C-alpha cells in the first residue's frame, strides 16, 4: 500500500514529506502527484524520457514467463539472501522492479518489511502495485535523485536493472544491504546463436563491481544456473521479455524458433552479489 511507505519517501521536487489524499500524493509545499486507478503513484511528471522503459508487450511477456515459475529459484535465492542480511524492519526498495516479482517474493520472506517498487514503465508498475499487499509502486527514473529519504532503505534490490550508485548509497541505511542480480555471460547461451539474441557482456559482473565499488564493498556472491526445457511458445515469450525484443523482427524470430527442437534445452545463468555501504568519508 502506498500509504504505508510514505514515511520512506520524499517529494521529488522539494524533498518535503508526502501524504496521501484521494487518488493523489501531496507534499508539505503543495506539489501533487496522481495515483493511477491501478494503485501506483506517478512521481515522474513532465517531459521524462522513457526510452528504456519496458513496453506493454515486454512487460506482458515477462509476467507470463515468470508465472511459469522458471526463475522461482532465483527469486528464492534473492529472498534468502535478503532475509539473512536485512535489518529487522524497514523498507525494501526495488530499483527497476518490473512486475514486482522479486520484491513480492522477498516480502513474503521479510514479513515485517514494506516494499517500494520503482520503475520507469507504467506498464510494469500496474502489475507491481498489485504484486504484494505491502508494495507501494512509483514511476521513477533511477538515474535521477531518488524520491526516497536519506538512510531510509534496509534492503535495496537491483535485478537486471540500471544502477545509480551514488543515490543507492544515499538512501541505504548504514546497516542495510544492496543486492544486485545480473545475467551471467552464458545466460541463455543455447538461444543466443540460433535466435540472434544480444549477448551478455562477459565483463558484466566486473563492471557492476566497478560501478558501485567507490561507495560499496562486496559482501557476498553466488552463481545460479537453471537448466530449463522450454516449449517454442515459452522461448518466444522469453525472447519477447528481454533486451533483444527492441531489435528483433517478430516474423524472423518465429521462423528461427520453429527451426529449434522441442522442447528446447536452455540454461539461465545468473550472478547475485551483495554489497555493504562504505561509511561516508
Ligand atoms: C530487464 S527488466 C527487469 C525487471 C525486474 N527487475 C525483473 O527482473 O523482473 C528492466 C526494468 O528496468 C526498467 N527501467 C529501465 N530503465 C529504467 C530507469 N532509468 N529507471 C527506472 N526503471 C528503469 C524497465 O522498465 C524494466 O521494467
Ligand atoms: Zn514538494
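-> sequence recovered:
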Amino acid at each position: 500500500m502506498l500509504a504505508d511507505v510514505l514515511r520512506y519517501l520524499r517529494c521529488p521536487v522539494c524533498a518535503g514529506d508526502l501524504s496521501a489524499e484521494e487518488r493523489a500524493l501531496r507534499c508539505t509545499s503543495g506539489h501533487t502527484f496522481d495515483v493511477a486507478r491501478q494503485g501506483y503513484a506517478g512521481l515522474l511528471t513532465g517531459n521524462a524520457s522513457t526510452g528504456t522503459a519496458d513496453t506493454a508487450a515486454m512487460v506482458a511477456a515477462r509476467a507470463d514467463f515468470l508465472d511459469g515459475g522458471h526463475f522461482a529459484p532465483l527469486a528464492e535465492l534473492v529472498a534468502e539472501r535478503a532475509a539473512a542480511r536485512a535489518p529487522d524492519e524497514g523498507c525494501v526498495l526495488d530499483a527497476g522492479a518490473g512486475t514486482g516479482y522479486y520484491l513480492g517474493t522477498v516480502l513474503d520472506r521479510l514479513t515485517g518489511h514494506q516494499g517500494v517498487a520503482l520503475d520507469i514503465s507504467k506498464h510494469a508498475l500496474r502489475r507491481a502495485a498489485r504484486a504484494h499487499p505491502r508494495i507501494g509502486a512509483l514511476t521513477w527514473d533511477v538515474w535521477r535523485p531518488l524520491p526516497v529519504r536519506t538512510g531510509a532503505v534496509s534492503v535495496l534490490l537491483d535485478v537486471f536493472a540500471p544502477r545509480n550508485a551514488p543515490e543507492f548509497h544515499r538512501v541505504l541505511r548504514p546497516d542495510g544491504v544492496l543486492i544486485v542480480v545480473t545475467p551471467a555471460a552464458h545466460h541463455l547461451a543455447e538461444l543466443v546463436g540460433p535466435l540472434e539474441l544480444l549477448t551478455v557482456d562477459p565483463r558484466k559482473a566486473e563492471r557492476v563491481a566497478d560501478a558501485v565499488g567507490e561507495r560499496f564493498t562486496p559482501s557476498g556472491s553466488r552463481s545460479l544456473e537453471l537448466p530449463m526445457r522450454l516449449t517454442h511458445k515459452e522461448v518466444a515469450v522469453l525472447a519477447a521479455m528481454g533486451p533483444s525484443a527492441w531489435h528483433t523482427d517478430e516474423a524472423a524470430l518465429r521462423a528461427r524458433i520453429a527451426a529449434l527442437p522441442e522442447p528446447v534445452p536452455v540454461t539461465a545463468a545468473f550472478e547475485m552479489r551483495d554489497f555493504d555501504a562504505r561509511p561516508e568519508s
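Strands lie at 18-21, 24-27, 32-34, 90-95, 113-119, 135-139, 153-159, 172-183, 216-230, 264-277.
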